[in-house]
Each structure stands twice: as C-alpha cells, then as structure tokens.
Amino acid sequence: MAAHHLLFAAIVLCAAQLIRGYSFNNCIATYSNKRSFQCIHRTDTYMSAIVNDLPKSTINLTICLNHVWHIPNNSFVHLPNLQNLRLDHNHLRIMEPLAFHNLHYLKSLNLSFNYISELNSSLFDGLHNLTFLSLTSNKLKQLPEGIFYPLLNLDTLIIRQNVLTDYSGIAKSVSNLTNLKTLDLCFNKLTSLHSNVSLPQSLAVFYVCRNNLYTLGCEGSFFKSVEVIDLSYNSELPTMAFQGLDLRSVKYLRLRSTSVNIVKFLSISNVPAGYVDFSGTGLQNDSLISEFCKLMRKKLNWIVKLRLGNNGIRSLADIPLYYCPKIKEALDLSHNNLKSVGCLCFLSRQTYLKRFDAEHNHLTSLQSCEKTVQNTVYWNLEELSYRYNRILSVNSNAFHHTPNIKTLKLNINTIAFLDRKALSGLKMLETLRLDNNLLTDVFSETFEDQVNLQTLNLRNNRIAVIFNETFHSLKNLTILDLGGNKITHIQPSGFNGLKSLAKLYLDGNNLRQIDTSLYRVFQDTLTALDLQSNQIRFLSEHISSPFMNLSKLSDLKLGEQKPYGLTLVPRSFFRGLHSLKSLYLTNNNINHLAPDAFDDLTSLRFLTLDNCCVGLAQLLPGVFKNLRNLTRLIVENMGIGNFSKEIFGNLTELRLLQLNRNVMQSIPVDTLESLSKLEYLDIRNIPLSCTCENKLLQNYTLNNQHVQVVYLYNIPCPHDLKHRLYNFDTKVCDMDIGEYLFFGTAAVIFLFTLTPLLYVKLYWKMKFGYYVFRSWFSEQWSRLREKEENCKYDAFISYNSSDEHWVINQLVPNLEGNGSSFKLCLHHRDFELGRDIVDNIVSAVYSSRKTICVVSRSFLQSEWCSLEIQLASYRLFDEHRDVLLLVFLEPIAERQLSSYHRMRKVMLKKTYLQWPGPGCTDPMQAQDLFWNQLRRAMRMDSRVKTEEKDIDKACVNPENKEHLENHISDENFYLLP
Fold this sequence. Notes:
Pfam families: LRR_8, TIR. The chain has 977 residues and is of the alpha/beta class. The protein is built from 18 helices and 45 strands. Strand 9, helix 3 and strand 10 form a beta-alpha-beta unit.
C-alpha cells in the first residue's frame, strides 16, 4: 500500500510540475498571506492529492473537514518550511512512521478530532522545533514508549478526550521534555497518577479533569513546580489523596465535583488557600461555608478571588462572608440556585470587592436599593454580572448600593420592565449590556445619569420606537447597538446627545427610510453604520444622499433589505462618502445600478454585491470607474453575463475578485490584464465554454504566477465533463481559419460545379458499380465469372413490356423454333420468383452468352431497360466480350439517343439490326434476312476484335443486295437488313 501511495504521489507531483499556473487542486492560499493555505471540505481522500501541488514556501497549512484517512510516508517532504499544520476534523486512522519526515521547522501540529487509535513510536522523529501538539478527541488507548522524546522544544501537549488508562506510560513519554509547560489529559480513563517518573520540572499547567481517578498515588514532590492543576470531575477522588503532597507552587487549583471535603483538605494541605477554586466543592449551606470561611481566615487575611460557583447555594443568607478573609478582586456565585441577590447586604464586610458574578442562577427581579444604609454602599465594586438568569423586571434605583460600577451585564434574561430610574446614580458606568431581553421601550430618563457610558448594547429586544431625547445624556457613548429590534420610527431628536458616537448598529429592524437629519449630531464622529435587514427601498433615482455629511464614515452595511431588497440605488445615494472603505450591498435584488452610483467612493477598499441582483445583472460601463483604491470586490451570483474592460478595467488596485456563480461564457483576458495587482480570482461555478473563445483565458490562468485562480483544475467544461477549463484542446485554435475557409469554400464550389458533369457522364457507371458491388457480397460474382461455354442461356432478351407482343410472336419463335434451338432468358418466364429484381437482371446478363436489347421509344423510357443495356455494355467495354446485340424495332433519331451516352458509344463501335418496317419493298425477304443475320450473330464468338467498321444503316433493298453480301462474308461485322 505504501508503494501504491508513493507512486500516486509521484504522478500527482509530476502533473503539478507540468502545470505552472498559480492555482491548486484542493487548497486555497489565504488572501492576506500567500504562504498560508486552507484545504477544507475537499472530496479527495488521498493526502498526496491534496498537498502535492503546494509550493515549497508554505508556512501555514490547514487541512480540515475532509475524508482523508491515511498519511503515507513523506507526505509533506516537499514542504520543508512548514511551521503550522492543522489536520483536525478529518477521518485520520493511520499515520505511517515517516508521515512528517523533513518538517524540521514545524512548530504547531494539530491532529484533533480524528479516529487515531495507534501511534508509531518514530512518528514525531525530526520535529525538534515542535512547540504545540494536540491529539484531542481520538481513540488512543496507550502511547508507545518514548514517542515524544524527539520533541525537545514541546511547550504544550494536549491528549484530552481519548481512552488512555496508563498514566505511567504517559509520564515516561514526557519525562525528558524539559520545555513542556502544559499537559492536558482531561476526558480519559486514568485511575491513578502513580509513576516512577516525575513530571518535567518545567511543567506549569496540568489538567487531569474528567478521568476515573480514585487516588493520586504520586510522591509528595509530584506537583512541586506545577502552578495550575485541574482535577475536577473525578468523582471518586478522596480527600486523603492529597496527604503529604507539596502544593506550595499552586496558583490555581480546581476540585469541582470530586469527593474531596474542602474543609478537611485545607487543614491537611499546604496549598495557598487563596488560589483554590471552591466551585462545586459542596459548600451549599450556612454551616459548611462558616466552617470553611473560619478556616480560610486562619490561613490568610486577604484572598484575591473567591469562587463558590456550582455549589447549589439557594440563598445569600447561607453565605456568611463576614467570617471569610477580605476579598480583593472578585466573588463568583455563578451556577447556583440563587433566586435573589437583594441589595448585596451579605457583602457588608467585603468593602474592597471589585467584581461580583451571579450568572446562571434563578434570579427573577432586581429590587430597589434606594433605602439601604450608608455602610451597605459598595464604593469599590466596579463590575456586576447577572447574565443568564430569569430576570423579568429591574426596579428603580436597583443599583443605588453600587454607584461606581463601570460594567453592568444584564443580558440574556427576560427583562420586560426596566424602570425609568432603574439605572439612576450609575454615573461611572462605561459598559451596559441589556441585549437579548424583552424590552419594548426606553425613555429619556432611562439613561439620564450615564454620562460616562461608552458602550450600550440593546440588541435583540422588542423596541419599536426611539423617542426624543432617549440618549440625550450619552455624550461619551461611542458604540450603540440597536440591532435585532422592531424599530419602525426614530423621532426627530431620538439621537440627540450622541456627540461621540462612532458605531451605530440598526440592522434587523423595520426602518423604511434613512432620515438624513437623524445623523447630524454625530456626522463628524460616526465611522460604522449597519442598516442591514431593514425595509429600506427606493422608487426613484432622484433623491438626495442621506450620508452627505458623514465625512468619517468608513463602514456601511445595507444588505438584505426586506422583503424585496433595495431594487434601485439612486444616482446620488452614496454622495459625500469620500472616507468610506467598506460597503456591503448583499442580497438586495438590485435591478438598476446607475453608472455614477459609486463615483464619490474614492477611498473604498472593500465592496460586496453578491446575490444582489435579479436575473441577469446589467452593470453599465464606468460603474466602477472611480474605485481606483478598491482592493477586494465580491460580485458572486449576480447573473453577470459580460465581464468587460469598460466595467472592470479601472480597478487597478484590485487584489481579490470573486466572480463565482455568474453566467458569462467567456472572460476577456485583456480585462484581467488591466487588473495589474490582482492576486486572487474565483471563477468557480461559471459556465465558461471550452472553446477557442477562452483559449487566452486558459493561457492566462496557467502561466500567470501572480494570480491565484481558486480550484482552477476542478473547473469543468459545461458540455464535456471529462475535460477541464485548464486542459481542453486548443490546437484547432492555432489554425489559420481564413485560409481554411478559403480552401473549404473553393472545394465546395468546385464540387457543386463538377457534380452535374459527373452525374451525366458517370451516373450509370456508378450505378452499375453499386449493383455489381451488391452482387459481390451476395456471392453472385463467382457465378458471373463462369466460363462462356457453361452459360445457362444463349441470350438474355431486354425489352419493354409494350414490345412484349413482338418478342413473343416474332423473336421467340424465330430463335427458339424453326430449327434454331437457341435458349432465351425472358423476364416473365425465367426470372426467379421472390428474388430481388436487380439480382435477377445481373444474373440474367452474366448467365447468358449474349444480351439482345429490343430498342424502341418505350425501351428508352424504361429505367430497368437502361440498367440492362448498361450491364451488357459494361461486359462489352470492360471485359472485352462481344455480348451485346441491338435490335431497333422502329427508326429513332440520333437526338433522341443523346442522353444515352453508353448506347451511342455502342452504336459507333458496332453494327446494329433494324427490324424491317413498312417502308421496305419486300418485307418478307427483309425479315428472313434479319433473322438469318441475328442467328449468325448469336453463334459468333464473343471475343472482340481490335478493329471494327460501320455498316450502312439502311433497310436492304434489291439494288444494294450485292453490297450487303460483301459485308456478310466478314465475320467481324453485323449486317443491317
């Protein structure tokens, strides 16, 4: 199998070397970094097919979400400069020993989320510079001894989510890694940490969460240098497992969901108590927490963070924090069962606290705290988080006891009622999160005191109207997020006061128009405006620009207007946006785009128009003429039918062009060449014809080393799926079409001229040839070549049915009777029934010593008679056998024989017989002479002599009888009666 893969790799590599285009079979070079490649969602299952055409300069490579199952030896040998390699989320099962050979500069290797069950002991040989290795979510049951020995610079090793059971083998494998700082063994099946080998002294972070540890089983110095330890979710781990362990270096210890008695643990351990995460340690009631706090206070006076989350605490009354040491930074009560936090009175002695988290609880409301006494005000508290609760209402002065908070998180609740005075007194507030609630209204009093607010997030509520002066006090606000609401109307002074606003998000609302007057307050400060997914639509081109005075706006989003899209972009819509750098017009069904629509966007760097047109896009010449600074243009699925220089030719700074899913059949190369800085071209899913029209495009894509054509080698020919755009045959395109057309036309004219002449001269000869050819294949030829003495008949009589009376009454009795005993072949008597008539005629001619043609005017009009005389004359001229006798029943003028070229030729060479007509003086004597001459002619040898003479074609009269008899004596002539 290895040899097979090596051969396949060599073939693919040779093919890649023959093709010089800057494109790749299964990978895309990252636009911003040509040395970074992504090979995602490809159909090839061989690693060689995916990577063998990548350049030697590759530094970062991502191969994800593919069906690759095998990495053969030397798969990446041609990528010696590779530093970061991601192979996660594939179907890897087998990696051969030299799979990563020659990757001496590799620093990061991610093999997560595959099906690897076994590793070869020499798999990582040579990876001396590797600092990060992840084997997360595989099927490893054990590790070969010494597998990590070559990784001397390894900093982070992650082997979580496998089925490892032997910690001792792991310890031996990592014991020599003197630079290892992080080791993650979570989600395995380890039962103990017993080993004769110590952890590397460099190790600072050690995760062994979610295993089956029932003891630690390690020596006292095992954790002597470890700073972060996670032993959570080892449900059988007992308290005494920590007896004698040196934990003085620990700065974070997590023991959630273990069997450890935290109070007892603190009494037997030398761990710095202030660095223990007490979440999920069973401290759920007053007595346990009191005992815990008293013990903590004996050990230290200050604690930086106290984490009591996930302990099932139901009430703040169960948290007697006055017994605990003073908390300097944060108190975390997340993931408990709290239904109320009151006014945080339980923190009465924790006056230094800066952050309080009560996320993921069961809070339903925040009560008013206006009447709390002075000593319950927490002046140092700066951050409150009540996210992920069930809060329905926030009453007035709910934060009176925390006047100096800077960050308040009330998001992801069900707040439907926010009292107008709920936030009263929060003059130091800088960040307010109210997103993902059920708010329907905010008023001018709601944010009246938040003079220092900088970020306000109201996304995904049910606000329908922005009332006058709602934000009048927020002069320092820089980010306002109102997206995902139901806003249909903003009152005239709704944005008053927002003098510093830089980013405004109004996407996902029901706005029908853009009111210019609304933005006058922050026209000199706004840099980002999001109006996507509203109901904005224009019916006329002639409207003034709503953005005229937004001199600093750099990011504008107008995509996906509901339900029909913008449909029309007014001519002056973007007037005044000289600083705009990014414009989004996606999914807008635009049916008309004025040629000067983008004229003012001289600073634009990014423009996306994908899916923004209905049917065939009518981009007018010059529409992009002023976008000389544009670097990225996305025009996917627009129905563009004509990619012309008049439209795209001025984009001289363009680096990325996505044209995929359009309908043009050709792309002019001169247009592409005018894009002098183009680096990335996507022309997938375009019905580009594989014809001479795209010959130059083929050359351009194959030979341009500066433009990456995405998946060029997979672009099919629409009408020939066996070929691809890059290799369809262009040889015919090199021909001089004019020359070929000239000679082709001349040949056609010559044939048209020659055909009638050939028809007249050769028609019967060709027809005869056809019938002879037929006879050849019907096995008649051998019989036709029989010797003359073996002929079946003495003569074949060729006549027209209208002359049948003369043949029956005159010819047959005189040749078969009267002592002549000739055997004649007649149509009506001797033709074989059921046989093809042509075969009968051919057989009759060649089975007879002579052929007698009874010529009359009717005879000349019969096609079958013509065929019979042609067959007989063929024997006369081409076989040199004198087999043809002509008998004229009536006088026929020569002009009537002009179309019978063969017959005239016979008449010029031979004597023919004329049946004595009524004009003869002695008919009986003439008829007797006629029959004598015909019998004599039939008895004569068929061999043709070299010299023939004409005989007078006159009826025999007594006065020329002597002349006639002189000729009769010459056996070479036939006599005319």
